[in-house]
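Tutorial handout. Part one gives the primary structure; part two gives the three-dimensional structure as tokens.
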Amino acid sequence: MSVLYWNPTANHFVGGSTMKAQKNQNHSDTPVFNLIPEDQLTRELSPVWHKRFDKAVRHILENIQHPLNWQEVANLCAISPNHFRDMFSQVFNETPGQYLRRMRLKLAVYYLCTEQDLSITEIATESGFSSSQALAKVLRQLLNTSASEIRDRIHQHDEAYIEDLMRFSGHPQKGLSDSMEQAMASDIPVTLKYYPERPVFIHKAAMYSFSKLEKIWKQKRPSSANDRVLVYSWTDLASPDQSTTNSAGYFCDEADANHRISAGLYLSCRVNISGLAGYYATLKSLYLYVLRHGLEPENSAPVIETYHNCDTLYAESIDLSASILVRPAS
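Part two.
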């Protein structure tokens, strides 16, 4: 990871000791790091093969709730089914069938972690499994766990369990146990900047109901607000419970605000991710940076997540900025 603008050892900004207010509230000037494994694996392919695999992956994701005909997918790529299977396996480190199953599993894990109001049967259907029993079988085979255990352990914030869950639902690396998301996250660039107090308009909702947060945001936001902002505390992130809430809203003018994000020094990054494995890898990268560079979170430090492409399908990509209020460790 690289740090910009701040030297924690010298305890001042590189190039000067004056803290300059960052005018841009939504991190549009922060470098965006691509944490999507499929993009990493295909970026050096020839244009022909890149286009073929882009079509294949998009078709798989857009039809994740339906049975897939691999002949049709191969036809999209203008190659035979056997050739498609062999080449896909070489590029993505798993067969097309394994990839589809993991994408469905990834989606199911996402719903289990973030939608406590959905039944297991509803989650199975939304994720492309034929039944809750089919989902249960895959969870037991691949992750050695159950849907109810995932919900319980996530709400208990069992770090070791979450680590294993994210590793096995992330994109596999050839011959390595860590997921690609975990490996790639070590290269996420971060910024450390001073922000003035920032006005926001927010509504509270349960931390583990992202659909409620999205619904509230869509109902309350003005047409000019394109970014969805979540605000919660570092303490809640470390030990959440059933009463823990997120605040969902948008940056706004002072006159329209009902809340203000504290001024201070914020450790931030901006990433493109495509699932919870990338999300958790991003937050962990910030946490590790704090530990390795003489920083610590402010008391009850606010964590701010800004989603810049709120209309994009979850299964495709999410443009996310994450930041936390920190100070040099005393």
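Part three, for discussion. Residues 1-24 have pLDDT under 50 and may be disordered. The radius of gyration is 21 Å.
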